[in-house]
Amino acid sequence: MGTRPFSEIANTVKSEWTPEVKEFADRFGAELEEQVREQVKLGKQLAEARIAAHLTQGQLATLSHIGQSEISRIERGLGNPTRDTLIRLTAAMGAELAIVPSKQLENA
After folding, report:
1. Residue 50: how many other CB atoms lie within 10 Å
2. Are 73 and 81 in contact (CB under 8 A)?
3. pLDDT tens digits, one per residue of 10-45
4. Using CA atoms, how far apart are residues 55 and 25, in angstroms rounded to an integer?
5. How far is C-alpha 61 from the chain's CA centre?
6. C-alpha span between 102 and 104 (Å, rounded)
7. CA angle 65-71-76, nearest 5°?
8. Distance separating alpha carbons of residues 85 and 32, to the nearest angstrom
9. Taking the C-alpha atoms of 21, 27, 33 and 34 in order, what is their torsion angle to the nearest 10 degrees?
10. Whole-number Å distance between alpha carbons of 44 and 29
């Protein structure tokens, strides 16, 4: 028996969805995309701060007591760090965690 690509199977199943299920899937997908964008943005910001502090991931791991592999996951947007993890990372870089208005809010 031949194998079918996942996309073909998914499209077959999706074709049977009710309008309500399609609407739910679209909303859920949009929310998930936004969460992923925010995780990637946070990871990039942490990587930039680490580099500005002239630290390698290994050095930051030693200073923060957070595993280097976890730091790597966070910086790539794959991790979901807790508040305490973020505070430990930023403190180890000689920085602090802050909430600043986004450009959209500043221009409103």
Report:
1. 21
2. no
3. 899 999 999 999 999 999 999 999 999 999 999 999
4. 42
5. 19
6. 5
7. 175
8. 22
9. -160
10. 23
